[in-house]
């Protein structure tokens, strides 16, 4: 616990990682957009995806806060109800291009490293947020976006007294005491670094304030393109701070005049042409994200086949009911809460993202495969046949 880690180095790695992953995803489709389900599985590191969603929630709340006027009563109950409905509809229509998505992913990577390198600062940023009057309900809401070290932070929230009279200073001081007494319960930094290393080379020494930058990290900016100078990283958002950490050529002085026939030019070339170093994990640059995701989520054939078997006899008996245009409109309020609690572990945004994606699929077969394959494995629906079958019946009615 005596090691001091650099927030600037975490942020630098976050920008590089975001640029690498966006190059892989948007390289062949620069105008593509990402919706909610695509963000939730953009990387195999779930914490990165959750923290992107958390930032979107912050933008969502900021949009609501800006809807205020001296001429209208925005606090009136009917106005608040209408605003809530409007913002709920808006949250189900996420559409991000690279220029908007890349900085969110870079910040998510920085915060992911911060959870284990700076727990107290992460508590203030991710759980307390910017609110001046924190509540237990708000802390539990923000806890939904923590995956790494979740039991550690959950233990702190559960230890708090049930009271409305809590302040930021009180919570921060209490968390410092809790952290000092329980720091050994933290998830090791090496474990988090190991997850990120599969996407872009990283070592724990790379993040130390006084630690040397390893050969692997120093060589990374050269990997994306073989071109010699500054053009290699034309990321639309990652800006100069992405390139700044790489001191390009202090060893290359002003070009020597042509008067000396001595072999001066080859001398500076030797340090630059040092990719003779073993560049660890360079294969990760060529592996598509969906392949990494597939590798990190081994197929649970038995569960998929079990659910598919229960869905097979979805014939006339299953389709007894009128055709519906969209699942979102067909699912009643009670059924929606049932699905959220039973199938999605209480995660409201996960539910909406999944339903939105199901409504976008063109055929019943694709929708069934998404439910019995992707969703069932991700949320472990092996004992949820009753609720899964209800969802499958709605899908049959939509495509009847």
Description:
- There is one protein chain.
- The protein has 400 residues and is mainly α.
- It folds into 2 domains: 7-192, no CATH class; 298-398, no CATH class.
- It is built from 20 helices and no strands.
- It has helices at residues 7-26, 36-40, 46-66, 77-91, 98-117, 119-128, 136-143, 150-159, 168-182, 189-197, 215-219, 239-243, 266-272, 289-296, 301-311, 327-330, 333-343, 348-360, 364-379, 385-398.
- Helix 19 packs antiparallel against helix 20.
- The radius of gyration is 25 Å and the shape is globular.
- The N and C termini lie far apart (60 Å).
- Mean pLDDT is 76; it is low at 214-286 and 297-320.
Output the keywords.
single chain; mainly alpha; 20 helices
Q: What are the SSEs and their pairings?
A:
Blueprint: H1 7-26, H2 36-40, H3 46-66, H4 77-91, H5 98-117, H6 119-128, H7 136-143, H8 150-159, H9 168-182, H10 189-197, H11 215-219, H12 239-243, H13 266-272, H14 289-296, H15 301-311, H16 327-330, H17 333-343, H18 348-360, H19 364-379, H20 385-398
Helix pairs in contact: 1-5, 3-5, 5-6, 6-9, 7-8, 15-19, 19-20
